[in-house]
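Practice record 12: protein with manganese (II) ion.
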Amino acid sequence: MSKKLADVKEIPASILGKKYPAKEHNLRVKNLLLKTNTELSSDTTALFITGERIEPLKYCDEHKKFRQNRYFYYLSGVNIPRASILYDFKTENLTLFLPNIDWDDVIWSGMPQSIENAQKEYNVDEVVYSDKIIDKINNLKGYKIFTTDLDEVIEPIKNQLIPSNKDFFYAMDESRLIKDWYEIEILRKAAEITDNSHLGVMSALPIELNELQIEAEFAYHAKRQGAHSMGYDPVCCAGPACGTLHYVDNTKKIENKASILIDAGAEWRNYTTDVTRCFPTSGKFTKEHREIYETVLDMQSQAMEKIKPGASWEDLHVLAHKVLIKHFLELGIFKKEYSEEELYKRKVSCGFYPHGLGHLLGLDVHDVAGNANYEDPDPIFVFLRLRRKLQEGMVVTNEPGCYFNEYLLKEFIEKHPERKEAIDYDVLKKYMYVGGVRIEDNILVTKDGYENLTKITSDPDEIEKIVSNGLKKSRSDFHVIV
Ligand SMILES: [Mn+2]
């Protein structure tokens, strides 16, 4: 009992008392926009964005779960629905507009945050109520005022704003691409929550009889540590279902299945992690599960070694394919008469590893500015969500995978005779029950290399120990009412 109990209010010491750097973010967007569109003048340009509203659900008194507009959050650090910001490029003044007080709402929800408290909490120059928006916008005579979209914008100013501008989005996305120290600290905290939650799942098999209980275990530990939500719907699967990339069913029994795959990431202060771990239900990997696990781990480690500024993510993705090919030749799934080069040329590995090596991570799980090309005719690259060189301050996922899925085999192998003939089906069928393995870590690109923010182990021996120690416990060692 050496560890202290999780504190949902705990804030990392590194950011304690420091404000989310909204003004720096606005300044970065300003500089990038003026550089991209040289016809704009800093004297007559501004940005104005209104945050997301709370959306009601049809036919009842409930509402959809609130999710702040990520561009709004990036430029404000404010999680209040329908708040707005105005940033004047000339004065570099950032104004936050709090929603006008709705007295009916106060009956149910209490008083909203005051102007004084908002001034203390946020990195803005001025805080006023939203009834000042019209005057403030009208004061900017002759200005070009950019916004993301007009969905939440009040009617009287709609025609004074420029929505959906390509250069404006480019400037915001390029700015979000490189994380500053504050964002990195938030991501570190989210990563720590996620590590503990994965450890919770991995060590609680006596009470995890169904995929949904895997999901519940993760969410329980994440919330206890202060994560209000997940960055995406978790993928929790057992056995052959592990071969479905974005499996969302999460309700099958675990009994009689050898493998578990959980892809889940906690979100903290709107920044998300994205982590996948696989483990054996018995506490000991089966021969085939271990072989595939080690294949994927080798794909991930070899790509990891090459992560540094300047490295092309496409090259690393290709390297992962080549490592898979090498292992499949050794396992006999690919016939030995074909060379590694020949197998790569025929794109046989796509049938087992159809997705990309990884993607950018931040306010969104598939973060902006990755330059994906979903029209790419090359099946190796079509689902690669990051198509650019690495830079210091990017945060990416390194997540190779290997799947045994009837549909993938049909689409990527059986329709292509030149791929099909290279596969030894007698060997392949021995691996089908494994379903799939993916190992996913969250990586910060540093000045000379990388830092792995994900600390939960991916070492197969350590995983066996964690799972086995969990299995030794009785159900009454866990907090379960039913
Ligand atoms: Mn991912």
